[in-house]
What does this fold into?
Amino acid sequence: MYYYISGKIVHKDTGAVAIDANGVAYYIKTTLTSLAEIGESGTLATMYTYLSVREDAMELYGFATKEEKAMYMMLISVSGVGPKAALAVLSVLKPAEVAAAIVTNDQKALTKAQGVGAKAAQRIILELKDKINADELDIPADTAYESGSGSGIEEAVGALVALGYSLNDAKAAVKGIDSSLAVEEIIKKALANLF
It folds into this structure.
């Protein structure tokens, strides 16, 4: 219904902002990331919005960027992931980090969000893995690892993630290992670092 709302910020809460657009103040629930990006009270801001209509409530959700809104829409499309859980995920991870966590099966990263447990993280990964377009979401090269591409370190990180380690743990495990070694050697050393 609303694509975006532009106006002066008249109030900021934890997790929400009120924007005055032509004499009407819209109370918009948002992520901590967007709250930090849009500025202080009294400044002009634009929020890309989504109106959630339920039997018992109508709530407006807004985001500082189109990418964050797009990821939010993907997250709420997952069965069992509601508006609050989606906001929680995007409050601790940027859209590119959420995409990287999905692509690399990093459940730990998703469960950092309040109210998102292991089962919800598994559902997010399972239902969104085929919908993520890494190029479109501008995932940094150091977070998107694919087997058979890039350096031996990247291949080793990809292998560790495939073995079930989180992306952060895998990256920490390969830190300081000589990148000129064979991939198998890098993996052996990284596994030793993990124990």
About this structure: Residues 134-150 have pLDDT under 50 and may be disordered. The chain has nine helices and five strands.
